[in-house]
Each structure stands twice: as C-alpha cells, then as structure tokens.
Amino acid sequence: MISTDKITEIFYVIDEFCKEFEKVTQKHRLVEDTGIKTRKRTSKLSDSEVMTIMVLFHYKQFRNLKHFYLYYVQVHMKKDFPQTVSYNRFIELQQQSVLPLALFLKTCCLGDCTGISFIDSTPLRVCHNKREKQHKVFKGTAAKGQCSLGWFFVPKAFGIKLHLIINDKGEILDFMLTQGNVDDRDPLKNHNFHKRIFGKIYGDKGYIGKDLFEQLFIDGVHLVTKIRKNMKNCLMLLQDRIMLRKRALIETVNDELKNQCQVEHTRHRSFENFITNLLSGLVAYSFFDKKPALNLEVIDKRLVA
C-alpha cells in the first residue's frame, strides 16, 4: 500500500508545478479567432492527477498499468482520486501530459552537482533480436546498436540508449536519449549535457578520448577513466583510483531504474507511451526516500590512513 503522506507529497509538488506551467503557457498561447464557438470542457482528471498516477505506478514497482489503474487506483484510492475516467481516456490524457512531465523532470527532479559525478549509458531494448522482423510498434524506426552487453534494437527517432550522469548521492543530474549505435562519448561533447557539471566525472573505458578530455577540461570538468591494456600507464591520484572502483554506483542506479521503476519493457503499444513511461519512471526515482549513495567519510578516512 502507498502511504497517504507520500501520495500527498507527490501530488502537492506536481500540482504546484502544473499551476505555474499553466500560467506561463496561457500568456504565450496563440488563439485563432474563427468566429465559431467551441466548447472547452475540463477533464475529470487534471494534468497533475494524471501525472501523479503515472509516478505512483512506477514508485510502487507495479508491472501492469491497466491493472494498476482499474484494480488499485479506482478501487483502493477513491479518496485520493474521487473522479476517474475510463482506462482508454486515461491513456489519452497520459499522452497529453508528456510536455509538462518532461519539464517537471528537468526543472524539479534533478539533483545538484557536488563535484563528484559518474556517467554511464544503458540500453533500453525494444524487443529480442529474434523478433526483429515481427516487431511492429517501432517498425521503420528501429535500428541495431551495440554495447558491452551485446546487440539490441533501438528506435532511431530518439534512440533507446539512456545516458545518465549522477552525483555521489545517487541523484540524477542529467540524462539524454540517443540512438543505439551512437558512441558513448558523443553526448558529452554536447555542452548542454554537461553544463551543470563541474569537478570530476568518472566513466568507463568507453569514454576514453583525447579530444573529449581536452574539451571537458576547458569547460571545467575533469574526465577520469581507466586505461586500456594497449595504452601507456600513467600516474593517477589515489582518490581517483578509489572513485573509479566506486563507479558501480551508477550501475546500481541503472538497475533500480530498470527493475524497480520499470523504464525498460517490451510491451509498448506506441512510441508516445514509451516516452511517458520513461519520463514518469525517472520522476518516480527522484521521489525514492533511499537512493544508492557513497559514504565519503569512509573514503576520506582511507585516504588519510
């Protein structure tokens, strides 16, 4: 069961954002005067309620949105959501809330950089390789990409390769979606992806690159990676060597996003539903009370010793 306090907390934050979002959009909205009167009926479920239901679905690790809405929200959460709509109508409202959900994630759910960051990419598979020709949802927009775990299918529109940057507290600092065959170093070359990052950022061997290191160093970011076997060894600070061993922190975050928040599954009926599922999963992770984090006090004691 989801506690009432947590539901109220999530709904309050989302509702306050939606109110400000509505004020801003009303000022810049273009209205065409056609002389024909149109009805503007308000939905039973507001945007903030739809977004809250989507976040709660991922927050409590449910696996089927339809069962969650029909047999949990409409049965056990009548006090929280007294006026609900049909499931088909809820899916329509869900797709309409993509823009406010994305802006809410970018403005209210990302953490602050502490000077210690970790970067990694993880594939979001659409289907198994054997079902490539039978897959219809992403037909015409899917391509093959390769990572350290093997080949997977990705839609070319936005890509199904999720690039994440987190801090030592396990908070997501920024994210980016690319094609599956895009090199892991390409997102870091985009200044908008790392403009909120400073200090040191730790990555795996896939981020090795002299040009990338120099570009990030000019922007105030020190990229630290392990070296390959065919590279000359170089001196590295003990602190950096310890932090590279702690890079498994971001792997734990990826695991929670996939297995708890369920940002990856192969049951999407449309590409729009994939986007809303991914965004709401990232928002739900930001509301987790306990996130995987590093105990920097223990690391400092090891360095002193």
Question: What does this molecule look like?
Answer:
Pfam families: DDE_Tnp_1_3 (PF13612). With 305 residues, this protein is α/β, with parallel strands linked by helices. The protein folds into two domains: 4-26 and 42-107, no CATH class; 112-268, Nucleotidyltransferase, domain 5 (2-Layer Sandwich), CATH 3.30.420. It has twelve helices and seven strands. The strands form two sheets. It has a five-stranded mixed sheet. The protein has a two-stranded antiparallel sheet with strand order 2-3. α1 crosses α2 and α2 packs across α11. The longest helix is centred in the N-terminal third of the chain and has 24 residues, at 4-27. It is globular, with a radius of gyration of 22 Å. It starts with a helix and ends with a helix. Mean pLDDT is 84; it is low at 151-158.
In terms of topology, how is this protein built?
Layout (H helix, E strand, L loop, with lengths): L3 H24 L19 H13 L5 H12 L10 H10 L1 H11 L7 E8 L18 E6 L2 E6 L5 E7 L4 E7 L6 H5 L1 H4 L4 E4 L7 H9 L2 E4 L13 H8 L2 H12 L11 H16 L9 H9 L1
Parallel strand pairs: 1-6, 6-7
Antiparallel strand pairs: 1-4, 2-3, 4-5
Helix pairs in contact: 1-2, 2-4, 2-11, 5-11
Fill in the keyword field for this structure.
single chain, 305 residues, alpha/beta, Nucleotidyltransferase, domain 5, 2 domains, five-stranded mixed β-sheet, two-stranded antiparallel sheet, 12 helices, 14% strand, globular, Tnp_DDE_dom
Taken from the alpha-carbon principal axes, the silhouette is globular
Any guess at the CATH architecture of the largest domain?
A: 2-Layer Sandwich
Residue share in helices? 40-55%
Q: Can you identify the CATH class of the largest domain?
A: Alpha Beta
- Record field, number of beta strands: 7
* Structural class by sheet pairing and helices: alpha/beta
Order of helices and strands: HHHHHEEEEEHHEHEHHHH
Q: How would you state the average pLDDT, rounded?
A: 84
Protein name: Transposase DDE domain-containing protein
Organism: Sinomicrobium oceani
